[in-house]
Amino acid sequence: MNTALDKQSLFNKSLGAPRSVKCILFDLDGTLIDSVPDLAVALNKMLLDLDLPVVAEQLAREWVGNGAAKLVERGLCHHGLNADALQSMHAKGLDLFLEHYNDCCADKTVLYEGVAQALAEFKRHQITMAIVTNKPRRFIAPILEHLAIDHYFSLLLGGDELAHKKPHPEPLLHCMDSLNISARSVLMVGDSRNDIEAARAANIPVVAMNYGYNHGRPIEQDKPDCVFASMLELAKQLAN
Predict the structure, then answer these.
(1) Are the CB atoms for 28 and 140 separated by under 8 Å?
(2) Which residues pair with 23 in a beta bridge?
(3) What is the SS3 assignment for 111?
(4) What distance in Å separates the CA atoms of residue 9 and residue 109, rounded to the nearest whole number?
(5) What percentage of the chain exceeds 90 in pLDDT?
(6) CA distance 72 to 68
(7) Which of 91, 121, 138, 210 is deepest in the core (most CB within 10 A)?
């Protein structure tokens, strides 16, 4: 995968004819946007409210990817809380975190380089796009609107809308059903093991971005169909 020819060959072999992709399901955090700066601010304000020490942004970067409840749990567990203390504090901590995040969710969040251009390219090729994230639904639209990319997506699905989150396949299957698109025409694009496992369980191909949030683990180890260093690189492959 070290040359353009190698990557194109692998991409075509894994996904079939590139122009058969009619729909892309995007993860959000770590795939389209770098949201860690705002998530870390909200997490640290929660910790201060609970009289616990703040943590470095890099730690929050390693904890992101399984939804707000899991992020709060990891933040609390970092301070050595036992199971009883964690159980008693988690619900309050989650409420505090969501309250703080509501106030800052788009303050420092940015698009990754090349994302805006790539989305425009996908739209030019008439590819339907949807967001499938473990982030609570109420934060998705404000962030997309602030970053001026909300108009690209036909469907937004948050992690609190169905019985299961990724890595369960239900969110992906729900999107395909809602958009009336078959698995053979869908591509999942994410940055973490959760995205890959969900796509495998839904029986759809998956490519991964290598710059996102995978708990410090190289995404190549989780064996997506292909790995890209930028969203624009993926757009160019789909246009071939």
Answers:
(1) yes
(2) 128, 186
(3) strand
(4) 34
(5) 82
(6) 6
(7) 121
The one catalytic residue in 27, 191, 195, 222 is: 27
Q: What is the pLDDT of residue 7?
A: 63
169's tokens: 């396949």
CA dihedral 113, 143, 165, 200 (to 10 degrees): -30
DSSP-derived 3-state class of residue 179:
helix
pLDDT for 18 equals 46
Rounded CA separation 97/76 (Å): 12
Torsion of CA 213, 219, 223, 229, to 10 degrees: 100
Residue showing tokens 């369980």: 201
Give 131's strand partners.
26, 156
Burial of residue 160 (CB within 10 Å: 0-12, 13-18, 19+) is middle
- Is 104's pLDDT higher than 80? yes
| Torsion 209-210-212-213 (CA) sign | positive
The predicted-structure confidence for 123-164, as pLDDT tens digits, reads as follows 999 999 999 999 999 999 999 999 999 999 999 999 999 999
CA torsion angle 161 219 236 1 (round to 10): -160
Alpha-carbon separation of residue 200 from 24, 167, 195, 217 (angstroms): 15, 9, 9, 19
CB neighbours of residue 80 within 10 Å: 8
With a cut of 80, say whether residue 8 has pLDDT above it. no
Cβ(23)–Cβ(32) under 8 Å?
A: no
Query: At 206, which amino acid appears?
Result: V
Active site residue 27: yes
What percent of the chain stands above pLDDT 70? Answer: 92
Report helix, strand or coil for 129. strand
